[in-house]
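Now for today's protein:

——
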Amino acid sequence: MNDTISKKDLDLLTASEILEEASIIEGFPPLLDSLQCEYKLPFPDESILSNMDWDDFTFLVAKICPDKPPTEYQISENGKIYEVLHEDDGYGIQEANITKELTFFAIRREEKIDYSLEFSALFYKGDLKELELISLEEQNNEDRRKKEAEMISKAEESLKKRLSISIFKLPFYLIFKFLFSISNFITRFLYKSVNIFR
């Protein structure tokens, strides 16, 4: 697998879905971390995106600390970066003393348009020094919605087939189970009878 995921591969998946998929694939190389940004993102003034809520939106970022498993990070409103720690009684955060440039990206799905976003953030000892919008692409999502509808339709058809096959097999299964129980009872009865008369 490559160290990066192309924007084309992200067409049908959001960042959180990619991380979810990655976590269930055995042996998936931990090449990505997730990041949420409460700091104001630098959109053009006339962009509709500047009016949207981004605090709970999940972005992807190349591994920040390669020796750690996939990790969640947050950039606070004041520009500090924190590592999210999952604990037994909930979760906590701790400052991440990072000095490096991070590129984070995602696709945000809206009703009629999907937005492909990429940002560059420069951190020095955990403090945000620069945040820049690298790319912003808008795509009509009609094709994606059609593909999703087709996938849902196929999944529903497959489920209906399985249910109809299961319902068809049920009587045979019950008859077989009944016959097996009777033969099992007869076998045990004969075994005990033979042992009694010995």
